[in-house]
Amino acid sequence: VARLCVCDLLVAECDANCCCDPDCTEADFSLFTTCSVPIVTGDSRLCSQKAAVYSLDVDANPAERIFELIDQVNPSVFCIHSTNYKQLLSFSSPEMPTPENFDQLLKQFGRAAFSAEPEPDSWNSNTDVQNPSDANETYRYEHGAPVQTEDAFLRLPRPVVSSWCSDANPAGFLVNQATKCTRSVSMEKCGSIQAVSMLFYINSSILAKLYEFVFQVNITVQAVVVQSQDGMRTLLNDSDALRLPMILDDLCINIVLGVSYHITYTDAGEIIEAAASFVLGAINKEALSIQQSFEISFTQVNTQPVPLSGNPGYIVGLPIRAGFLPQGYPFPAEMSLQHNTNKHGQLTILQSTSSQDCLAAQGARAPVLFGYNMISGCTLRITAATKCQPLTQTLLDLLKGQNFPEYVASFGNSQAQDVLDWVPIIHLHTSEQVKSSCQIPVSLEIEVKWTKYGSLVNPQARILNVTATIATTTLQQLPSGRERTFPVTSSVVFTDISSPAEPGYKAWPTINAKLPFDFFFPFV
Fold first, then answer.
1. What pLDDT, on the 0 to 100 scale, is given for residue 140?
2. Assessment of whether the complete model's pTM goes beyond 0.90
3. Most exposed of 82, 90, 227, 469 (fewest Cβ within 10 Å)?
4. Domain extents in the chain
């Protein structure tokens, strides 16, 4: 900016009152009355930049020009951090299609999504070519890096512009994804469509490390599920067998409907294991397309994956995470998630069955889903021979399950080691005001109090309090030969206790600003 001067209009002559004109001398400056351009900057949209400031010291005799180079900070909340787009600095004429370059331009720009730069040949890496930066350097996978195979990259098809599948989407390292898209099929091409064959998804080995072709990991088949025409699924015992599409009884069978990859990696960013699970189906001659689903997940070796229910706040419809405080707390200070009948560490309630028989419903549990008020129940039939104490314990096990948790996670992503992120469950008991030697539990009511936490723009659901109330009733001794039935119920209620903002008071400052339509030009 010190060499820029927008008021320098005359060649090899001093422009009047142009304090940045390099043709002006000290004698010329002494005759100036003001600086027509007091400050010279570059792009005003930059967050921080150098500015050349010009002024006149009229108190001096004769008057003198004062020049300063300062750091100017843009007060706007919308600013450009750095101008790293090289094409912005100059205009390059677009390449016009000719018979000679048409194929090259079509390859570069002929897809639904493309880059302005030519596509690198890194996907088709040559094993004999070393990386120019350092041939001896060990390359580790980093988050988001495409998972490379011996010939290209691990494909995770997804829709791009329309719902049709595009196979050009690489799977990113440590990026869990789930996609669905539509694939064109026909009976005539049953065995020739690569994208509906198991071999298409497991025929390439994965590079254990980036750009290193010495160690490769084969993709093994973990499970194969066959889906019938009516939607019923059956797990095959011989999952190792490769099942290729073929025509049988006017059906094209072994069509890939879904693929689920599971990648195991080390903390050094090295892939050590890869497995794929398949869902296979069949199409008839009327079918023109199928819907395929694809999924990929990553697990670090020697760790147990724990499903989350939000990040950080709970998401409506996902299970509430629960666990126990281990013996000897705070040594170690880490929560222990449930691992018996509930392997994922979830808060559960009694699950209703078609028979409505409480004794037949033992062990059937349903997870408590955040934001969903739920109720379930069954009918208990007792006789004169029923004993109070065993019945009481049976009903408690029925209502609470084998291991009712002590704590629930306040956030959907609360970690087991963060004990303060877990909320203790408060247990209450209510009973009839009747003196009786036998009180049996007949209902469990769970109330979950939650609040909106964080910014008003993107509030996160946080659990603050959980109360489990057991209600009991009196069991009178029945005459011989008589029977009685009791309804046994479990329920869950979610209560939002968020405090509304006071009238005329804004808890958080808000920004009401509109960007110019060309603010980010030429950036996309």
1. 82
2. no
3. 90
4. 2-83, 145-300, 318-327+335-496
